[in-house]
Design goal:
It is a single chain. By secondary structure, this protein is α/β, with parallel strands linked by helices. The chain has 3 domains: about 10-200, Ribonuclease H-like superfamily/Ribonuclease H (Nucleotidyltransferase, domain 5, 2-Layer Sandwich), CATH 3.30.420.10; about 230-305, HRDC domain (DNA polymerase, domain 1, Orthogonal Bundle), CATH 1.10.150.80; about 315-404, Orthogonal Bundle (DNA polymerase, domain 1). It contains 20 helices and 8 strands. The strands form 2 sheets. A 6-stranded mixed sheet has the order 2-5-4-3-6-7, with helices on both faces. The longest helix has 21 residues, at about 225-245. The chain is flat. The two termini are about 40 Å apart.
């Protein structure tokens, strides 16, 4: 891949830390500079996950040849559509684009062409694809990653955080250039472009039905009455979190919801005796929590949630041997094919072919096993053309063997 080299700490941006753009005039100057710049545009966004409700951007960093680095406060400048138009013809370079694209699109920045350095690293078989590791492995530079989990909604942002943010885009285009060359040399560039396009054009995920069912530890809750308490507490927490722009876990931890559902406290005193309700934020809303518990306890039977919802996909793979031994055999055979192909092409199995597509194909294969029918099924399940070219025939052969 790349030769070992002396690692050099990357401590300061080349032109220093730029001032934060936080007004219309400053933003207009950035738009003008980036319109006049050349080449790809490195982009990153910082959120406040774990601190604020939702995943909005609290800082946007950009760098382009001829324009330098810009740090934009999207709270003060919530519409970046003019900047988006200024770089509409440019390739946008991101790392782990699926994480940043939603919050960038919320403020009017919508790439038309993209290069994802994290996804490129996966296709090239790099074992660790975090930005800091990739920059160190590929470029021999060490990034300081100490502020990645900071509360970026803080104002004013500390100088050390701004330095970190500027450095995140400092060498992103250089990283892109090396990875682009490696993709070309390995014959994977077309695959990468197809993957980048799929990320850009993917529809936003549909809102989850019954999102309260994702409460950590809910597997401990066995009765539908206790599940009703989980649902009521989760809903109350979500309302409070949204109204106060706080991450739900900072309002009330999941452990508190599950503990209250299991114990079913009937009084304020009983509720406060649960250790997870002793935090300051939890105590502030103690009457709301008790009301939610009481609602869950007094719902009619018709209003109670079902123990679980039935998904549209196959059951967990560890149950296949009991429920459908033939399907379990097909799955084992298909997985072996995918693992072998992934090793041959030096990439993770999940990037060669989505695990969910493999499960769905083998749980309910086409009535007639042919390369055409398997290709059609995989395409419908979201497989890209380059994935089909590598996997459709060997998967067809594997399925045919298990049916024989």
């Amino acid at each position: 891949m790349t030769e070992e080299r002396t690692v050099v700490p990357l401590l300061e941006p080349r032109e220093g830390i730029p001032p934060v753009v936080a007004d219309a005039d400053s933003l207009a100057r950035v738009v003008e500079a980036y319109a006049a710049g050349t080449g790809p545009v490195a982009v990153d966004a910082e959120r406040a996950s774990g601190y604020r409700y939702g995943n909005r951007a609290y800082l946007v960093q950009l760098r382009r040849a001829g324009a330098g680095t810009a740090l934009i406060d999207p709270i003060a400048c919530p519409d970046l559509s003019a900047l988006d138009a200024a770089v509409a013809e440019a390739e946008i370079v991101l790392h782990a684009a699926s994480q940043d694209l939603p919050c960038l699109m919320e403020i009017g920045f919508r790439p038309r062409a993209m290069f994802d350095t994290e996804l490129a690293g996966r296709l090239l078989g790099y074992e660790r694809v975090g930005l800091g590791t990739m920059v160190e492995t590929v470029l021999g530079l060490r990034l300081e990653k100490g502020h990645s989990a900071a509360d970026w909604s803080t104002r004013p942002l500390p100088e050390a955080w701004l330095r970190y943010a500027a450095l995140d885009v400092e060498v992103l285009v250089e990283l892109r250039d090396v990875l682009h060359a490696e993709l070309t040399e390995s014959g994977k560039l077309a695959w990468a472009h197809e993957e980048f396009g799929a990320v850009l054009n993917s529809a936003p995920p549909a809102p989850r039905s019954d999102p309260w069912r994702r409460t950590s530890g809910i597997h401990k809750v066995r009765s539908v009455r206790a599940l009703a308490i989980v649902r009521e507490l989760w809903t109350m927490r979500d309302t409070i979190a949204r109204e106060n722009d706080l991450a739900p876990g900072r309002v009330l931890p999941d452990a508190a919801i599950v503990a209250a559902a299991l114990q079913g406290p009937r009084t304020r005193k009983a509720l406060t005796e649960i250790s997870a309700f002793t935090g300051r934020s939890a105590r502030r809303h103690i009457n709301d929590w008790l009301a939610a518990v009481n609602r869950g306890r007094t719902l009619s039977d018709a209003q109670l949630p079902q123990p679980s919802t039935t998904g549209d996909g196959p059951p967990p793979a560890n149950r296949w041997a009991d429920r459908d031994p033939a399907a379990a055999k097909r799955l084992a055979s298909a997985r072996a094919v995918v693992v072998a192909l992934a090793e041959e092409h030096h990439m993770p199995t999940e990037n060669l072919l989505q695990p969910d597509a493999v499960r769905r194909l083998t749980w309910e294969p086409p009535e007639e096993i042919t390369e055409e029918s398997v290709t059609a099924r995989l395409r419908k399940l979201g497989a890209r053309e380059w994935q089909l070219s590598l996997t459709a025939r060997p998967l067809t052969e594997a399925l045919a063997r298990t049916e024989g």
